[in-house]
Predict the 3D structure of the following.
Amino acid sequence: QVQLVESGGGLVQPGGSLRLSCAASGSILSIDAMDWYRQAPGKQRELVATITILGATNYADSVKGRFTISRDKAKNTVYLQMSSLKPEDTAVYYCHVEGAYASTWSPRHFNSWGQGTRVTVSS
């Protein structure tokens, strides 16, 4: 199976920046897409940013121009650089990765989630 480990959350003042990281480990054969989601208190989980196997990116309207998703293919790691943070960005951020891993008989699809990292934007 594939495990995801996130890091980089914390407390930051409005207007500040943070960088989240998510490293995937396991018998990974390929990665199709890597995403960041977030869930604020009392709200549904929402998609924040996506990066595909070809490097195409897509962002939620609420973070366009402020957040940047990137990846290190060699390290199977995805990053989320967050700038000009606002109090409404406060949430638990989750990474999500889909791809294929090596199993005993044949490659199998995986769909894994990180454990979540809390981001709090407050003065």
